[in-house]
Structures are given as structure tokens and as C-alpha cells.
Amino acid sequence: MGELKANIPAHIAIIMDGNGRWAKEMGLPRIAGHRQGIKRVKEIIRAADNLGIKAITLFAFSTENWVRPKIEINMLMRSLDVFLEKEIDSLDKNNIRFMVIGREDPLPGYIQKKLKKAQERTKDNTGLTLVLALNYGSRQEIVDAAKAFSRQVSAGNASIEDLDADKFSRYFYTAGLPDPDLLIRTSGEMRLSNFLLWQLAYAEFYFPKKYWPDFGVGDLERAILVYQSRERRFGGVDVNT
Fold first, then answer.
1. Which of 37, 62, 126, 195 has fewest C-beta within 10 Å?
2. Is the preceding peptide bond at 108 cis, omega within 30 degrees of 0?
3. What local confidence, expressed as pLDDT, does residue 3 receive?
4. Is residue 116 part of a domain?
5. Structural domain tally of the chain?
């Protein structure tokens, strides 16, 4: 593997895919895949912080995931509860800001309370921003942004004629964060699955075949190397061609 360059992506978004398939291939229940996936989350957070990445957004649970078996959903919520109980101290001590994007309902009340507490506790931290996309759907986010802007227009606080892409972005759940530079989706699947559709407009995409429970620090560094090998034009042209 080559040497990482100075242009580390400021914001990396990750679709953590393949927990269930990893467990199946290992002859284990799906729950075991999620548990191993959580271990990887902790490892990748530490690595991102050490690499100087400014923000990392993890797609933890989508608005469509509620159709999964109830036992699996309950296990995921318990795992999130344990993560919040055990890891927020460490995040705070390491100057990491914790942020959640997505709708609160129908998340369990005890989870909502812990999420608010964790965000409040770490809101002034200035290091890595860890964003958890939880009960998140990008189409719903865009609709919610349109509704929020409409309310401002109705109240006389905004003008339709003045709206542009930058101003509209301020109504998104991710307001204040830079758009992702790099999207990683593990397991080899090549789709966005209703994740950050607006924010990923100019991101580089990377689709490793490894399942999330097998995706380690070396794989993250390899993804960054691939990102650094590409030329980002943002709709422009190569001046050398």
C-alpha cells in the first residue's frame, strides 16, 4: 500500500453493509454480524481521528430498516444503548463531537434521551465530528428541508427568489457540516440506498467487496489512497487536456 498524501478527505461517509451476510458465511446468527460490526465502528472512529479526518458519517439505521425482524431491531437498539453508555466518555475525552441525523420517532424513548444527552455533552468538542445517521432517509430529509424553508417563507423570514443550493442546504439535517468528499459502501453493493443523496453530489465513490465486519484500518487507508489518486473536477475539465 502506498503512502497517504496530505489531501486527506475532510468528510467520509460510510454505508456499513454486509453484517448479515458476514454472519451467514461464518455460520453465525445475524446478531453476531451486528456485534462484530460495532467493534469495527469503534476501530474506524479511532483511525479517522488519528488520520485528521474532520467528519465521518456512518449509516447505522435507515427509515426502511423497520421492516426487519423485531428481534433484530431490538438487538440493534440495545447495542446502540450499550455504545452510548460505554463509548461517549471516550469520545468526549478525545475531543470528538457526536451528532445524530434522522427523525427521532419511532426510536425508543430511552434511546432518544441518551442521544440528546450525548450530543449535548460533546457539542463544544472541536476534533472529529462523528455523525450517526439513525432512522435516516435522504428523500425524507429533502422533504423536511423543503417544509422548513416553506415555513420560513410563510413567516416572512425567507424569500423564494433568494433561494439557492447553498441556502437550501442550511435546512438539511447536516447543516453546518461539509459535504462528504468520499463515500465508502462495503460488501461490493453499488447503490446509495437513500443515503445523503443531496450531499453526495460531488463525492468520490468507493465500493470494496469486504463486508463491514472485515473492514479494518488498512482498508480505510486504502480507500483514502484511491480517493487521492482521483482528480476531482466538480463539473470542470482537466486544464491539461
1. 126
2. no
3. 75
4. yes
5. 1
